[in-house]
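Below is how a single chain appears once it has passed through the pipeline. First comes the sequence as given, then the structure the pipeline wrote out for it. We keep one example in the README because the format questions we get most often are answered faster by looking than by reading.
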Amino acid sequence: MGVLIEGQMSTFFINGHLVESIVRSSELLYEGHFALYLGTGQEVTSEVMFDDFSLRNNP
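Resulting structure:
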């Protein structure tokens, strides 16, 4: 999963493929937190594993 944020545009990728782009309104905060969640819609135990994760802040 990849997220590219440039100004008010947020672009989301899965396995290198663009899946969604949104423009944030000026009412939204410019600072905050980010999290990854798993949701399967099923009442069974699920597991997510990452073999590599990085967070970069481009000046």
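The mean pLDDT is 76.

See the next section for the split statistics.
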